[in-house]
Fold each of these.
Amino acid sequence: MRSIWRTLTSRLGPGLLRDIVLVCAADGLVGASFGAITVGSGLPLWLPMLLSLVVFAGAAQFMFVGLIASGGNPIAAVVAGLVVNARHVPFGFAIGDVFGRGLARRAAGAHLMIDETVAFALAQRDSDRRRVAFWTCGIGLFVCWNVGVVAGAFGGTVISDTDAFGLDAAFPAVLLALVLPSLKDRSTRLAAAVGVVVALATSPVLPAGVPVLLALAGVLVARGGTPDGPRDPAPTPQSRSEDVT
Amino acid sequence: MTSPLVLVVATVVLGAGTFAFRFAGPALRTRVTLSGRAEHLMATSAVVLLAALVATSALLADGEFAGVARPAGVAVGGVLAWRKAPFVVVVLAAAATAAGLRLLGVP
């Protein structure tokens, strides 16, 4: 355990490792609240645990359990969860190269791909750091999330209200801090601004998950705004890694 | 209440569908080589999605305004991140601001 920590510290730097540990701890608390809320709403003890192992996506799990607990149709709950998770398709195209070769690695990497791991990977400059950050964050979050869910399911409603700790504000702040450096690039900033406006404007009328997908319209707008102009010369591996950071 | 069998099947279907979404990118990437431009477009898409997630999860709850405390916390975190404060400070300040405001009775 000690030697794993030392290896990770040397490959990620103490700062990044500490950041990942912080997010894992916060995720564990949210997992505990998920377990407690699910069991507290009258659903069986094993359901939050099974969901957390096979789905491993917080927002979709809360949505699924919320709909089932309020007497909703299970098919509707599955569809709602899938719509919330559809953003993983573009995520996979963006960071699919960090998983490495081989079916097992790609399958495991795909399962560990959630908002936080994508954001941590995108925020790293070189590909080695990106890979280590992704796997460290992914494995750490998977363990903390599932341990948290088990603790919450058995422990009951002790920490069912994570809003009291401000955790609902901490998670957007995590993603914002990780995404901010990428917004230095002008065309990315424009794309993100348009995407945010589209997502916010459509949220009141569309089911959860769809507005975030519609934000991708921002990519098209920004691309239309800066066609193959001189701003974007022959894309080299180097310029790409700068763009991503 | 929904029967246990239905719950298991629904959970497994949601898990399988989610995995298919996640696996599509990595699986297709090994078959086609993307141009540098396409790579850039993919990275931009991920940033746009994350930015949209930040905005919607900071401001909205169930499609309606989430109240003052949460956006205020995220805003404090955002300003600190912009001023290059350490990540830990950003996250804890965001949580502390939201929690503090709620303690004072701000929704």
Note: The two ends of chain B are 33 Å apart (CA to CA).
Amino acid sequence: MDLQAKIIEQFEQVARDQEKELTQLAPDTVLLDSGLDSLCFAIIVAKLEDELGVDPFTAAEDVFFPVTVADFVKFYEDAAAA
Amino acid sequence: MKMPPRLDLKAALAGTDGALVARDVRVPMAALANGNPLSVAPASLKDAHVLIRTTSQLNAALALVALDGVAARLVIAPPDLKDEHLADVIHRAGIDTLVADGAVVTGLRSVTVSPDLKAADAAGQARVTEWVMFTSGTSGAPKMVAHSLAGLAGAIMKPGAISPGAGEKIVWGTFYDIRRYGGLQILLRALIGGASLVLSEPDETATEFLMRLGQAGVSHLTGTPSHWRRALMSPAIGRIAPRYVRLSGEIAGQAVLDALKLQFPAAAIGHAYASTEAGVGFEVTDGLEGFPADFVGRLDAQKMGAVEMKVEGGTLHLRSPRTAMGYVGGAEALKDDGWVDSGDMVELRGTRYHFAGRRGGIINVGGLKINPEEVEAVINRHPGVALSRVSSRKNPITGALVVADVVLADAANDNATFKESLLALCRAQLPAFKVPALVRFVERLELTAGGKLARHG
């Protein structure tokens, strides 16, 4: 399974666990409009860290917060490539 | 317990051009100085013990202004005060009047508040009113802390506190709710300084609020590091250009400080440390996490009217002229010598102190505090659980998350179905931020020699 699919799967899983209604995700979907709240993103980042062994929010040299789904995926791709 | 001198809030509002700005209504402060937002004449609430419980932040602010100097005690209910705690709060604080914009409590005198101002009658002799805030209670019934308005406003009045440059218009905004300590500070700054304040609505998204802040020309904006991280994830972050950015309520890490510097290169960015009991602590403005070691033990602190600090037993202790007057309706008393143990552990690294979590394992998720024992008690109610330990896991979005290690009564239950039934129990009995984000099944949990669950920092 590629990275993007793993990330999307976590979005869907956490939305189910937190009883949030996830919008149809597209690369340009704004994260804050996806139906998930800060707590959901916090959980997604923790679960992805356990699954992938990386937390790009903490590891990144650049200070940058992702706005869209594509930003978020790229964040992890860059971290995986580093 | 000595009462500081009275501060006249309404007099401060007269003749100013600021306003309280909600989504659909804007209340000029000058109108508030002699208008009445209540359904009765404020004078009829003279010496009353009032609980202010509103759905809208604006209405809470209006009631506070109307009743300061009139009521004996104003208890400010936070937005998430549960109905089940209401009877206890009313009893402990000796409440005789409820001011609300929604549901009322039967058997209690109820007054409604709205932005529809009526003419106020001539003010009688003003008295000192006690302002009572809730601490972000970690378990059980919420704790109430009494302040005087002058005490709450101490940091604002003191020389050297953030003041505008000549001719610069200030528009305050806050991601906090004004019914919590961090937000009330901003409300008072706006009121006393006659500056505008933009208030969020309960059903407003972060992006909608940022757009409104941008339209209002927000110049001074405050929130927790978690609030700011959420704002930085919004496409509307570019709509605002505050000159003054402030973080408080949680430990500000270097990443969020750097991200804000990049987003607002011209802004003065400060992170503040405060506890509800100790009043305002101190502010760090050099853009680095932690605080300079020489803040501790400053001999001239008291003379300057600033907060005194010491580190004892690894935690930060504070003493200030603005320390709260005491708890309301509880046996617990503040120490006589005025020192308050914050419970925040600090570590000296070089010439700087860094925060190292809470003593007692209190978990801070986006500014909301959680006692691990409370969560463990719920988990342990599940018949399949032998033992559990709840702890904090560092997180770049909310600062921390609640995680649980669980020892199963029957090892055969190590599966997703069991985990789901455990989480369902937690969700039914705890608010979302207290529910463990991650559950791990472990074979055993270490106990101390005394037979208590071993907790590591």
Note: The interface with chain A takes residues 205-207, 226, 229-230, 232-235, 255, 258-259, 261-262, 365-366, 393-398, 401, 403, 423, 427, 432-433, 437-438 of chain B (CB under 8 Å).
